[in-house]
Amino acid sequence: MATVSDITSDPALETRLFWDQYKIPIITVAAVLILAGLAFAGYQAYTARAAADAMSALTAAHSAEEYQKVIERYPGSESAASAYLLLAARQREKKQFAEANTTLRKFIDQYPKHQLITTAWMGVAANLESLGKPDEALSTYQRLVTEYPQSFNAPLALLAEVPLLKAKNRVEDARRACETVMSQYRDSIVMNEAVQQLMSLPKPAAPAMPTPAPSAAPIPMARPPEPATAATAPAKPAGSP
Q: Given a cut of 70, is residue 211 above it in pLDDT?
């Protein structure tokens, strides 16, 4: 006769008992996992299809209106990000500098981590220059260099500062901008341009040598009285011994 220990030590029996007790939760979890996998696969397929459609629309777009349609139909996509930049470029070509900056700022707000974020900031600064706002343009270039010092646009922004600084007669600041490019961005494509800009700046004035103070003329010392001699001795009065 089988004992309780013999029954509980039977693997097949233990598996059957476990299945009978937990089969409903197991089936439920398995079904959820299967459905989740199917949903994820469907989402991946939908995302890939949407991305392909967005890319096709972007490739076919050539006008500002067509770029705007890509942005509206595929918001948040990589193609929409590219459409923002291309739209801003078209607006700048038409000298619509304020509209171009509105477009670029929308891109910056929606894609703050995009790899071309500094390109957008460079466009904003260039448009500000074209709008006759050199102070705002200069501060934008300086902000780019400060916040994105490792970006490929940092040396370009530094070099763009030079004519703005020269216009303000801030020659030493312009000199420092050129020297920063030469020291920190030696491999940049604007390295040679920075050297040329530096050479075109006025030479710093040599410090004036201090003029020595004139020394006071020596005061002549009083000569001691000469001793009296026979020739110079006073004549004795007559009748004196």
A: no
